Amino acid sequence: MNNKFDALKDDDSGDHDQDNNSPKDGEKERNEDEEKDQNTTKRKAVVPGAGEHPLQYNYTFWYSRRTPGRPASTQSYEQNIKQIGSFASVEQFWRFYSHMIRPGDLTGHSDFHLFKEGIKPMWEDDANKSGGKWIIRLRKGLASRCWENLILAMLGEQFMVGEEICGAVVSVRFQEDIISIWNKTASDQATTARIRDTLRRVLNLPPNTIMEYKTHTDSIKAWEDFHGLVNASAEVIRETGRKVLGVSSGRRKEDKETWWWNEEVQDSVQRKRLAKKKWDMDRTEENRQEYKELQRRVKREVSKAKQKAYEELYTRLDTREGEKDLYRLARQRDRDGKDVQQVRVIKDRDGRVLTSEESVQRRWKEYFEELMNEENEREKRVEGVNSVEQKVDKIRKDEVRKALKRMKSGKAVGPDDIPVEVWKCLGEAAVEFLANLFNRVLESERMPEEWRRSVLVPIFKNKGDVQSCSNYRGIKLMSHTMKLWERVVEARLRKVVEICEQQYGFMPRKSTTDAIFALRILMEKYRDGQKELHCVFVDLEKAYDRVPREELWYCMRKSGVAEKYVRVVQDMYERSRTVVRCAVGQTEKFNVEVGLHQGSALSPFLFAIVMDQLSEEVRQESPWTMMFADDIVICSESREQVEENLERWRFALERRGMKVSRSKTEYMCVNEREGSGTVRLQGEEVKKVQEFKYLGSTVQSNGECGKEENISKNQGEGVQDSGETGHAVWFRDSVNEEETGVRARGSRAEDVEVLFGSDKIGQD
């Protein structure tokens, strides 16, 4: 029996996608399925053996497992479901059951079904059409016990409702497990109530457990209507966009300089574009001549405006106020010269250079698939946490308006090719449509399958080998409509969850400058008091990519998040899949089952929730402990105390799957009187430094803020000498390069204000 079950699992792991078959193969496959159904119908019913204890009804075990990454449909579901076997007696049941894997040991998107013989576990079966099901959602670890109690109660006829019971299902998911029991007549409220009460008793459920009843008719209609609405609206938007705006080539192009445009140039360019569109729609000679004339006029106006703008620029660069523009232009020209987006060769894990497109794509897929599906070792939680079962309000239109307002325009689109500008242009019509759509998602706790796809774009970190995958950060391009949905959910979570004051990252009315200011004030006080201050700057290895999702669900529940929202967020992460877009094309898709989504609007706040809960017992009040997302600084008056605090942080984080980096965590002693050594982390010495770049601002062990260093890094980064300055900025021989170059270099030693973001920090 065990071998038979394993064979079913192996068979199920194959590709059932009909789209890859030819019509002839598809027809043959359908004929085989029909033949199997006929054979099943004609199969002789099982009977109890001699001396065995017969059951009132014969039953059949079924098993199904959906291939990860494939959307559910009636056809794929029917293909994936497998019949394990039927039984008619107690002894036959135990012979099956004793060899079957327990639900708690199943992986992936798997289901066990136990139905009366002759009834398929499908909504469309004649016995199920007019019925429904009671649904109970279970936290991980309870499925095996509850499933056994349920099927024993069902076989023992404890429900006392005659032939009403059709069967039961246990559904194993990545974040939770679901138990359901199906009955024949949804309209019989007395019978459904009796089933509910018996179910609560045999499973020994707590009084506050929410049990949901759904009719199969409503489930089918809701599924078809919802996905039909989403797919139809998306296709209308894309088709209209293709007709009206056209389709770009997708190839990267150099940005045209437009900073010097004036109103006259803009008006002329707009008239030229309209003339071009008119000519494209009606290719007459008159329209062509009109377009060509406007094209010549625009070129003349552009030339005049450009010459005037450059003369004003060079005049301004020779002034005190123009020095910042000089460095800005130098940095921009330097970045333009490093076109890392077009790297077409990459190194494998052994350092060998890969040149073929296929091998480069495989390497990118291998690297990111490994990165996004690797989980650090951690302790399994023994203690549970009570879920907050409460009714949640419907999504209001004003929530959608606020989310739309917060979305930035001009961002790269996700796989659905629908930019947020579409919804902004539609105004109130979009708000009403999106509010309806989001309420459907909230009610069903299932978002459209199209939102689960993403595109991963490697972004070079501007350090290290450009041909090494490890020197790239993967940013996900996700559906803008899903990001809107995330912002609505995030706004609601922020109203419920209170994050500790030590967290400065992505918190309202807090910024990097607040954390920098607090640390500098602390350092200055200890410097003025001639006392030592010991600081450890903790770095977490691949923090977002390593967050265990089980810990995320636990921390959300511990923070008081309603279970409805927990399930909504779980759905965002279930069956998520991505492809890598590199210079040689797109890779094959792969699943992402560990960590938070990079590029997600919700991820920063989810990470703050996790850090808030994991650090609850080890953090001290600010400024002795400060966090900006995963950047942590721990301060103390003694080396021994800061070392002890560091070890407590390490234990609290690593036991839950987060890992402290041994190579990037650094220690600094402010106002050190005599050599006091360094701190240790699990016996290893932590690197001791004299200065550290904290949130973009350099702090030094002498208590200074690194005036000259900050000036050069924040204003002149990438400009190392006068030769590079001249190469990066100057375009005409008429400019006095020597004079302006001296002025640029001289500004580095002068007292200026350091710009950090939009805030100014005055220098002494």
From TrEMBL:
Composition bias, Basic and acidic residues:
1-40
Signal sequence: where? none
Location relative to the cell? Cytoplasm, P-body
Q: Which BP terms from GO are recorded?
A: regulation of translation; regulatory ncRNA-mediated gene silencing
Q: Which residues form the Reverse transcriptase domain?
A: 440-699
Q: Which InterPro entries does UniProt cross-reference here?
A: DNA/RNA_pol_sf, Rev_trsase/Diguanyl_cyclase, RT_dom, TIF_eIF4e-like, TIF_eIF_4E, TIF_eIF_4E_CS
Q: Positions of the region Disordered?
A: 1-49, 705-733
Regions annotated as coiled coil: 274-308
Keywords associated with the record:
Acetylation, Coiled coil, Cytoplasm, Initiation factor, Isopeptide bond, Phosphoprotein, Protein biosynthesis, RNA-binding, RNA-mediated gene silencing, Translation regulation, Ubl conjugation
Q: What does this protein do?
A: Component of the 4EHP-GYF2 complex, a multiprotein complex that acts as a repressor of translation initiation. In association with GIGYF2, assists ribosome-associated quality control (RQC) by sequestering the mRNA cap, blocking ribosome initiation and decreasing the translational load on problematic messages. Part of a pathway that works in parallel to RQC-mediated degradation of the stalled nascent polypeptide.
Q: Which family does it belong to?
A: Belongs to the beta type-B retroviral polymerase family. HERV class-II K(HML-2) pol subfamily. Belongs to the eukaryotic initiation factor 4E family.
Describe its partners and assembly state.
Interacts with EIF4EBP1, EIF4EBP2 and EIF4EBP3. Does not interact with eIF4G (EIF4G1, EIF4G2 or EIF4G3). Component of the 4EHP-GYF2 complex, at least composed of EIF4E2, GIGYF2 and ZNF598. Interacts with GIGYF2 (via the 4EHP-binding motif); the interaction is direct. Interacts with EIF4ENIF1/4E-T (via YXXXXLphi motif); increasing affinity for the 7-methylguanosine-containing mRNA cap.
Name the chain's protein.
Eukaryotic translation initiation factor 4E type 2
Which species does this protein come from? Hemibagrus guttatus
